[in-house]
Amino acid sequence: MTGFDLTRLLAERGGERYALHSRHLNHQLPRMLHTLGFDKVYERAEGAYFYDADGRDYLDMLAGFGVMGLGRHHPVVRQALHDVLDAQLADLTRFDCPPLPGLLAEQLLRHAPHLDRVFFGNSGTEAVETALKFARYATGRPRVLYCTHAFHGLTTGSLSVNGEDGFRDGFAPLLPDTAVEMGDLAALERELRRGDVAAFVVEPVQGKGVTPAPPGFLGAAQELLHCHKALLIADEVQTGLGRTGDFFAYQHEEGVEPDLVCVAKALSGGYVPVGATLGKEWIFKKVYSSMDRVLVHSASFGANAQAMATGLAVLSVMADEGIVANARRTGDLLRSRLAALVDRYELLHEVRGRGLMIGIEFGRPKSLGLRSRWTMLQAARKGLFAQMVVVPLLQRHRILTQVSGDHLEVIKLIPPLIIGEREVDRFVQAFTAVMDDAHSGGGLLWDFGRTLVKQAVANR
Ligand SMILES: Cc1ncc(COP(=O)(O)O)c(C=O)c1O
């Protein structure tokens, strides 16, 4: 082959995808996908659906871990990307002030009127790193507080505020940090009294387990933090841009005005990685306190034209199509229809969340026959039952979901925010069929459970 021809390359070598991953990338991904029977070949995607080579549709209830807020290949976002490439802008000169970052900052700040400035990076973890650095510099204090089970990204700073040992183990030493339970104001105050805390970073609805902050917690935490001259950082990387039925999830509670807000994922339109840290004037003024410090925090690709153009297109589509209202309406519908099943299925314990961020929690059944099966799974590994549900949802019903974190019996639904009644019907019907199967006590589902148990035991 001479010259570069992407279409030809994919046609000739696309079939090697799993082998290439096994050989050159993280080899555990194809291994895991083979084990679960998730080793599909998706050829095309549009909106909330993927399609395989036979044209069969798969409903996406995962949205690429939340980046596909508008679904895949939204025509307006796609056009913006074409347009910005065709414009051949003089981007990233680094010694001029291009218009797009200013315009996107202006739009983002309209949704957080108490904030004044934006730093653009390239991912969620970078947005969090920025917030941590800014908070430490602005307060002159080293320690950061976070919640148990928190997830804020996996670079070293963000890892320091990760609430799961599985992610942290082996990477120490990290930043000085302390975890508090979500909702535990007394613990927060105890830590703040030590006088060395820069900030408390929190997801308004925790991604792992889909746990919303208890009512009143964010406001009370903010008051305590400000009393002790520490900052509130809202990590809206997953919850932001309408996911929970408010533009930002912290807005669910009146009076909450975080000092720094982290945004990423859906702002990308699913195309160009981007991160944004929104913050108060005084914090930015302190970090960038003199001309000498102009580059004290910066990123080579930060605020690039492609990311800014897609971000602007995403916000424009969100307004034009009433995306936040749809997330709230469709989320309420899906959650209430699922919650109605709790009384019908003893393995189903709770349905929670806000907007289109929904957690379905399973738990110990009452009847004896099911309990022995449940106990067998729990003895091997916590989280296997949720995995046992995720697998037939894809295999039999062509719906992609995920278990919400290791060792959790929770399935998380974070579909594109454009879904409607049709997708709700399809999910509820499929979920009901899988639950019927699980409660019948026999069949393929529990056979697969036994396979998972063997795997878990072999992996110990
Ligand atoms: C709440 C939250 N913060 C930060 C991140 C990290 O984002 P990224 O993967 O873009 O670094 C994630 C990713 O899942 C997230 O859910």
Furnish the topology, listing elements before pairings.
Blueprint: H1 6-13, H2 17-24, H3 28-36, E1 42-46, E2 49-52, E3 57-60, H4 63-66, H5 75-86, H6 99-110, E4 117-121, H7 124-139, E5 143-147, H8 156-159, H9 165-168, E6 177-180, H10 185-192, E7 197-202, E8 205-206, E9 211-212, H11 217-227, E10 231-235, E11 260-263, E12 275-279, H12 281-287, H13 305-320, H14 323-339, E13 348-354, E14 357-362, H15 368-380, H16 384-395, E15 399-400, E16 402-403, E17 410-413, H17 421-440, H18 443-458
Parallel strand pairs: 3-15, 5-6, 5-7, 7-10, 10-11
Antiparallel strand pairs: 1-2, 2-3, 4-12, 8-9, 11-12, 13-14, 14-17, 16-17
Helix pairs in contact: 2-3, 5-13, 6-13, 7-12, 10-11, 14-17, 15-18, 16-18, 17-18
Tell me about the biggest sheet?
A: 7 strands, mixed
Strand order of the largest sheet: 4-12-11-10-7-5-6
**N-to-C terminal Cα separation, in Å?**
46 Å
Low-confidence stretches: none
Mean pLDDT comes to: 95
Number of continuous helical runs: 18
Q: What structural class results from the helix and strand content? A: alpha/beta
What is the approximate shape? globular
The percentage helix is: 40-55%
Can you offer a commentary on this structure?
A hairpin with a 2-residue loop joins strand 1 and strand 2. 43% of the residues lie in helices and 16% in strands. By secondary structure, it is of the alpha/beta class. 46% of the residues are buried. The chain binds pyridoxal-5'-phosphate. Pyridoxal-5'-phosphate binds next to helix 7.
